[in-house]
Write a structure and sequence with these properties.
24 helices, six-stranded antiparallel beta barrel
């Protein structure tokens, strides 16, 4: 057995490190945190803010294995990452594995190379409790905010919602940008472009230096230009330079990978993690743009050998952010001699990092800018042509140029013909085009990361999970927004004649940008109205600064928590008691048929339209909004169209056919089967022929693909991915199977495993009472209807095992349920039949699509 045990977070990292250490070292992985706050309950003593950490059920076996390995080792080396999260992992390991200070050493490295690992072994340190406390402060504060704010949302908005310190601020940014776009009033002006010719008929494209607000002013200018002799008024040529950007930080890597490679933030971080763990790049979570002297020297050698000495310009960059976390390097290659790697997807990101790092150590690009002024003293404004020539490409040789969405549409990188002052030019064409001002663009993932970083909200490790969370919670999405159409005027002066045209222009369309959902807007408005400080950008940034101070040892974390909670909790109580319910209600107008008000609002199943008031004797009627519609923008006419759904069609093959819209979108209902209408298709346009087409497509898709023990097996794709269906059993198909070409042995294997799992699911079952004792992921539990209940400990304070639970009586189980919910069995006796009957229409409409 090895004398030394090294514990890292990931198996990939363990595998790479094991290569560099001899037989005296064994490297094992903790697979991230081995313990955390409990999944159920807050897990924090609010009097002292002491966390109640526990080893999760899926890590118990691993912890047992690590404890066994620790007993056999003379020294344990804790080698998790050198950031707050990594330090906390090391601390939890030391505590849970009961490592004594004399038998443990903490080692850190920024890159997984042989030199870095051996150097870390030679320079161990102890666990940095300040970094651990900073991580604990973040974890505890975010748990408290989430656990106390979320129930307020359940009560005041809709069950099942969540709030979070950083996620809610990210949603606020997206909601505010959307409101800004909606309220934006575009202003029109006329921009003039001219194409001029010199004596040798070479073209010079130029722009008039002033825009005209009115059409008639632009037209007057064109009239005057008809008879004007255009001359070169001035030519100015001056040298300029372009310098390379600093090496990548986490944030800039995410932004550049998005614009150059089209990678989302989560994918970028997943690939960067692999590159780091396999030893290709330095640590990928960093705020620093600093490079080590060794890296600068290595880059210099590579640049000199590949491009020549004139391209080398070694330099170091300093981090502008005062809150940059931990003294890491920027993200860079560990070995500049490695120019590419085998895996295609990894290589694309590696190449980006490699070229950016090289470029940061290369000479500035030298350019020559030329500006030509064209006009006549008789004209009130002159045209200007701009050109740019690269004299020496410098860093551009390695990195090139990429345009961003904020760049001007026109590219100045063009060569202008030689002209002299006073030279007469003729115009080929002068165009006056009506242009409208545009609102700020919606956020891309990269844009949102940039904004969060600018505001000091979150840190490198939080950007990807935050962006993922707000999408998972369905507060924002990236749905495609169809463009609108408007008329624009264009006047062209060609050969002394002015031609006027009215053209159509599309505007306002978007895709792959963040748009808030209805529930996202309602939740945001409720939180900003009632928790102004928590949603305040400055406050969120100040909290991050407090974490930095704790990490530096300048503040005690529990004091920070006490100060925060003393203001936060009273606000929670006040809002819970006094705030009004939030539904995002918007009065659209009056229904011409009934004379009743038409509202758009959030209901139990999401955004909906309501005709009538809840207090009316005749209950309101409801309709769900369709994909692409939202509460804030839907018109009265569009809302009333929704009440044409559902509608009946003729029977098909002896079964009733109807078209409707439900919780999961528009559908065709055939008998008891709900079939989704393809995305983007208007359900109101679905007639008998189209409905039958949709049904036949469904029948073809649902046709048996095989049999299992004589019964048919079908397949499909649902909310949770691809599945096969046998009798009434749905079996998820993991990615390792080829879903398009499942073999009979694949099908047998999947169904066998599912049946075995189902057979082991129930310890005891009382079908009539809808009560069962079941095996769950975290151990046995009681299920009553859809509700789940804990199994209490025995009198001797030990847990029941599965064998003992087989003998527990139904009465005993009912007592366990009522101990946790006094009204569990009483609810059925409540005389609320009339009330529910009145809402039956809604319930049918809302739940209909759920059966799909």
């Amino acid at each position: 057995m090895s004398k030394n045990l090294v514990i890292v977070e990931s198996p990939a990292k363990a595998k790479t490190i094991q290569k560099y250490l001899g037989k005296d070292f064994e490297v094992k992985s903790s697979f991230g945190h081995i313990r955390d706050l409990p999944k159920k309950g807050m897990g924090i003593d609010l009097a002292t803010f002491s966390p109640d950490y526990e080893v999760s059920a899926d890590k118990k076996k691993l912890v047992t294995e690590l404890k066994a390995a620790v007993k056999k080792a003379e020294m344990v080396w804790l080698a998790s990452d050198e950031d707050r999260e990594g330090e906390a992992i090391a601390w939890h390991l030391a505590d849970e594995l009961k490592l004594k200070p004399e038998n443990r050493k903490r080692i850190v490295f920024h890159e997984i190379t042989k030199n870095a690992i051996l150097k870390a072994i030679e320079n161990p340190r102890d666990i940095d409790q300040n970094l651990v406390n900073a991580q604990q402060a973040r974890r505890v504060l975010d748990r408290i905010v989430g656990f106390e704010m979320s129930p307020v949302l359940w009560k005041k908005v809709k069950p099942g919602l969540s709030a979070g310190r950083v996620q809610s601020v990210a949603v606020r940014l997206i909601v505010e940008r959307e409101k800004e776009i909606r309220e934006f009033a575009p202003k029109a002006s006329f921009k003039l472009d001219g194409i001029f010719l010199n004596k040798t008929e070479q073209e010079i494209a130029a722009k008039l230096k002033k825009d005209f607000e009115k059409e008639e002013d632009a037209e007057k200018f064109l009239e005057k230009a008809k008879t004007t002799e255009f001359k070169v008024l001035n030519v100015e040529t001056k040298p300029g330079t372009r310098s390379a950007s600093a090496p990548f930080t986490t944030s800039t890597l995410q932004q550049e990978a998005s614009s150059r490679l089209g990678y989302n933030v989560t994918n970028t971080m997943r690939l960067a993690q692999r590159l780091y763990e396999e030893g290709y790049i330095t640590y990928m979570r960093t705020d620093s743009v600093n490079l080590s002297q060794e890296a600068i020297e290595d880059a210099k050698k590579q640049i000199t050998s590949e491009y020549g000495a004139e391209y080398s310009s070694p330099r170091n960059y300093t981090t502008k952010s005062a809150s940059a976390q931990e003294a890491h390097e920027a993200i860079r290659p560990t070995d500049f001699a490695v120019k590419s790697i085998g895996d295609a997807q990894l290589n694309r990101l590696y190449q980006l990092i490699y070229r950016r790092t090289l470029a940061s150590q290369m000479a500035n690009a030298k350019i020559e800018k030329t500006v030509i002024e064209i006009g006549n003293a008789s004209l009130p404004q002159y045209f200007e042509a701009q050109g740019e020539v690269i004299i020496f490409d410098g860093f551009l040789k390695a990195y090139g140029i990429v345009k961003t969405e904020d760049d001007d549409e026109e590219n100045n990188e063009k060569l202008l013909p030689k002209v002299s002052v006073g030279e007469v030019l003729s115009y080929k064409k002068i165009t006056a085009s009506e242009k409208f001002t545009r609102p700020s663009a919606r956020y891309t993932e990269a844009g949102l990361v940039k904004k969060l970083e600018e505001l000091g909200i979150g840190r490198p490790s939080t950007y990807a999970p935050t962006i993922q969370t707000i999408q998972n919670r369905e507060y924002v999405d990236k749905r495609e927004i169809d463009p609108q159409t408007r008329e624009v005027i264009r006047m062209s002066l060609v050969k002394d004649k002015i031609k006027k045209e009215v053209l159509e222009e599309k505007f306002g369309g978007d895709k792959n940008k963040f748009v808030p959902t209805d529930i996202g807007e309602v939740v945001n408005d409720f939180l900003t109205d009632n928790f102004k400080e928590i949603l305040d950008y400055g406050f969120t940034a100040r909290v991050e600064e407090s974490f930095d101070e704790i990490a530096n040892g300048d503040q005690k974390w529990k004091e920070m928590m006490t100060n925060f909670y003393s203001k936060f909790h009273p606000r929670i109580e006040d809002v819970e008691e006094n705030a009004d319910r939030a539904t995002g209600d918007r009065l659209l107008g009056v229904d011409p048929k009934t004379g009743k008000n038409v509202h758009a609002r959030i209901g139990r199943f999401g955004a909906m339209i309501q005709i009538g008031e809840t207090e009316d004797e005749e209950k309101p009627i409801f309709a769900s909004l369709m994909t692409g519609q939202n509460i804030a923008t839907i018109s009265l006419a569009e809302a009333l169209e929704l009440f044409k759904l559902p509608f009946e069609l003729n029977e098909f093959e002896g079964q009733a056919v109807s078209v409707g819209v439900g919780r999961f979108g528009p559908y065709v209902k055939w008998g008891e089967t709900f079939i989704s209408i393809p995305k983007g298709e208007d359900p109101l346009s679905v007639g008998q022929a189209r409905a039958e087409e949709i049904i036949n497509e469904k029948k073809k898709a649902d046709a048996p693909i095989a049999t299992y023990k004589g019964d048919p097996v079908t397949k499909g794709t649902g909310r949770f991915g691809p599945f096969i269906k046998y009798k009434d059993i749905f079996v998820n198909v993991p990615k390792r199977y080829n879903f398009d070409n499942l073999s009979q042995s694949d099908i047998n294997e999947l169904i066998d495993a599912k049946l075995e799992k189902e057979a082991n699911r129930y310890i005891q079952q009382w079908e009539k009472e809808k009560i069962s004792i079941e095996n769950g992921r975290w151990g046995p539990f009681v299920k009553f209807g859809k509700a789940m209940f804990k199994i209490p400990k025995k009198k001797d304070d030990t847990k029941y095992d599965a064998e003992e639970l087989k003998d527990v009586s139904l009465d005993e189980v009912k007592k366990w349920i009522t101990d946790q919910d006094k009204n569990a069995f009483a609810e059925k006796k409540k005389p609320a039949a009339k009330k529910t009957a009145a809402k039956k229409t809604t319930a049918v409409k809302k739940t209909a699509a759920k059966k799909k």
